[in-house]
Amino acid sequence: MKLIRYEYPTINDIDRLFGHTLPTLNRLGTVWDRLFDNYYHSTAPVTDLYEDDANYYVRVELPGVKREAVELSLENSVLTLGVKAQRTDESQALHYTVSRSISVPENVRQDTILAKLEEGVLMVTLPKAATTPSRVIEVK
Description:
Blueprint: E1 2-6, H1 11-18, H2 23-43, E2 47-51, E3 55-61, E4 70-75, E5 78-88, E6 93-103, E7 114-118, E8 121-127
Antiparallel strand pairs: 1-2, 2-3, 3-8, 4-5, 5-6, 7-8
């Protein structure tokens, strides 16, 4: 089973790289985090991609998102996830949009794709189509 996990880097990751050699970047990093870190986290959900013999799987962490807010489509071997939702903070209501596009192999059976959202985790199962055996073609 293959597993691919991708998280978008934040300024904290960059800050750790350069923090020892450029101490002023530490101060810049904390300001940057306050301004932009929530933006990057809300627009780039953590996603795991893996497969077994029969299926490809896409697992997306969407904490606090309701099923009605999720839009999912597959077109030209690109799985596109869109979320339009709002979250009420202590003092204000926040409206946000999340989107993610993932290239998937062409051998996906589009008629039997399953998507399930439970406890803030979206699980998409993409069944593999039967592969035709390769053959050698004689040139005459």
